[in-house]
Amino acid sequence: MPTQTAENPVVTQETAAAPVVLTEVTKRYGRRRGAVAALDGVSLSFGAGTFTAVLGVSGSGKSTLLQCAAGLERPSSGTVRLCGTELSRLSQRRQAVLRRQRVGFVFQDLNLLPELTVAENIALPLRLDHRPAGRTDIELAASRVGLGGDQLRRRSAELSGGQQQRVAIARALITRPDVIFADEPTGALDPHTAVGVLRLLREAADGATVVIVTHDPQVTRFCDRAVFLYAGRVDRVLAEPEPAVVARVLHELGERGRS
Amino acid sequence: MRGWMLAGIRRAPGPLIGTVVSAATAAALSVAALSIAVAHTEAPAGRLAGASVVVAADTTLHVTIGHGDDAHQSLPLAVYRGVPAALAGELARVPGVARATGESGFPGGVVRPGDVDLVAVTAKPGVPAGVLAGRIRAALPGGRGYTVATGAARGDVANLNAAVERSDGQILGAALIPPIVMISLFVLAATTALAVNLRRRRFALLRTVGATRGQVRRAILAELAGCGLAGGLLGWLPGAALGALGVRALAAHQMLPAGSTSWQTPWLLLIAGGVSVLVTVLSGQVAARRASRTAPAQALRETAAERKWPNPVRVLLGLAAAGGAGALVALTFSQKSPAGQLALAFPLLLACMVAVALLGPLLVAAAAWLARPFQAAGGPSARLALAAIAAQPRRTASAVIPVALAVAMVGCVYFVDSSIAHATATQAASTVTADRVISGPSSGPSSGTVAGNGLTDATLRQVRALPGVRAAAGVAPVALAAADPDLEQVNGEAVAGGPLGHVLDLGVTSGHLDALRPGQIAVSRLEAAPGAMGVHVGSRLTVYLPDGTPYRATVSAVYARSLASGDVLIPAAVTAGHTGTAAGFGQLLVSGGNPADVAGLAAGHPGWHVASRAAANAASAQQAAQDGFANNLILGVVAALAAVALVNTLVVATLERRRALRLLGQVGATRSQAAAVFGWQAVFVIVTGLAAGVAAGTVTLLAVTRAATGSLTPYIPLGPAAGLVAAVVVLTAGAVMIPFGAMRRREPSLAG
Asked: What's the predicted TM-score (pTM) here?
């Protein structure tokens, strides 16, 4: 099993063209003595069309990694290249535009605006971008996640958790993004529904680079790669991960934290 | 604006209801005040209904004060200057005039022989009144100095009080608008901040999926504009109704001409909407800006999203406001003139309120620290409540601030009024030092004819001639006009006889007041101060008699006790023939002499009434305490705004704690335990809010009381004070516990 360690980061010449590249990214919260490093010199790249799971015990920095990579948080040091552009060089406004044009998001919950209908939620990134959101575009995006008909006119608050995640995926897909970031997308779902949602994501991604933050080993069934974080650093990377192996690594990391 | 931005209003209006209610209140009160300010106040033409044109000597007093744009000032007169009776004959010769007759006997009419109040002109058939009025103006000797009225304007000439009353009522209506708008901004800033904060995750999500800061800010402002519009629509009709009620009430209190109607026009709808949208959007700027600037990742983390401590800029601004309030207090107390002190009162109250609002979180943290010793007595629920307050002082502050502001505003307005009324009554009860007081048949300022039975100079001479009488003086209230420094009505008394010191205790601070001779005038300390008339003993001063005749006089005395007796004393001799009534007095004040002699004199005149000093003083104290209608109106407006703000903010702030309630249920709290936690928090909000409000209001109250009454002790009647506290307790408890009850029913996790 090919394994890279933190001392051997996965940044090579060929990966510099990848849609998501983090170089020596550090994120500290708080000030001076009380500061906590949520990320500590992380370098990673996510190649075009890859499907990567980022795993780790609670507090290992996986959500911070996703937020820095997506431009939702500004790193304390280091650089993030998203879709070929270094984020620190973009204004807040340009970052927002980049997000709605090239990036899709799926979160654990609170994904949708409850007062909007399913169709309106799906069309949101297009609307924000002042682009026309045609019925057919919306219906197509919805049909890719198995939604359609009356469901599109319902308010998102009326849907089940699994259906809401599908709407979120449809919203993430409607702009045909280069990158999709998902933060615990199955965290609030039962195992059966979770598998369905992940399968959908995998099938519908359609060439987009997907980064999923999770603590669920089962998620890695659908992934090309698993990145393990520990205390804000990349602990190891597994290619073609097996859920059983992933579970063992997570257990190991958990034990390490206790000792 | 795109539809999706407003979907929140249409489909999930819950958090915005408070904003709509506040906006509706602001719109309703603004519309009401405006429809009073521009009320339709035509007085009926009465006896002159048959006249085409009415000609009187100018019914307005024109005075030029100093230089500049506003040097020319005017004031409606309550008494006719009179025109020569011969004018009727001259006007009869104007082409188109059928008949011109001199008319007299109107209230406030002239009493000089050879003069009439006005000339009523009837046009020949086919001559329009407007055309005839033009010819008459051209024909009048000098052309100026006359009021030539046709149509509806005849009513004002037939009833001079109409113009005075109109200006009183309309000025009051207009004066209410700025405070309404300002307080509404305060109220709405708090409500919009809560409404936005309640949904910060929604805006964070929008930012995450690619909305720019500008898009989020515009979405929030569009939503608030929608709320403002809804508020304007809702506030329009109640406001118009309130305005109609207000006009009727003002007319009943002689502050508008009888028969006035409020301004009723479709434009009011536009104005209601405009005011409401403007106030809402302006007050939402801070909230919208803050929501759009929050980093999306930060807002998506539920618990960490709220900062514990306020923004340092807010604290600095709060300290600046507190410092400003301190400086204003020092300035107020160092001001020599009561007028200057009064002018600083409103800015002072505002500075105190801004300081409390901005420093609210720090006040809450301090109060929570002080409350720690008591938590043991309250058990686990109190401990939990206090922990939540100490952990999130900003959140609790948003509930405490409206309580404090309500207490400060309402308390200040009410107790300033009660203190002045009390001081007036106290002065009234001790101003007269005469042994006996003879009152005439009627003693109003413009009471019409006294039918030969009044208290006249002759009566005064008779009384003075009675054996043993040490002093006797006649007093009559008189409404003068003076520049203080703007042309305004000044209430005073015309006095004759003396020595005044034996019958009146006016607290003379400089000069002498034993007798007031023509060419002399006595002025109250309040009016004499710089910033008002700016005079001292020996100064020359011009005041205008009720018919506009100037009276130039030298200040011979300045006195302190002016609340009950008016601000100016002039000799009765100079007012004769200028007051619109027969010369006479309202009261004769007598010291010494035999009571039986005085009673015997009065017995021969029906309508005369002799009272002891105590009885007379008690009667005037009672009269002084009654006239509070304008103050009650202002108090009602302020109380309405304060109550809406309080209930609004507390309801939203309580609903915001749904997650906390759920958590309590999940960890096994019983319903009564959860109720106790919310109850203790309500207690904390009430106590802290009352304390902060009392502190903020007291500073202003003391400054105003000292300025108006010269005493640092405000008069705070127990009943109303208890009523204010009770209202705050009931509103706060209700606004916390009723939403709590609604949430609790929907929270199945709560045991038992």
From this structure: 0.74
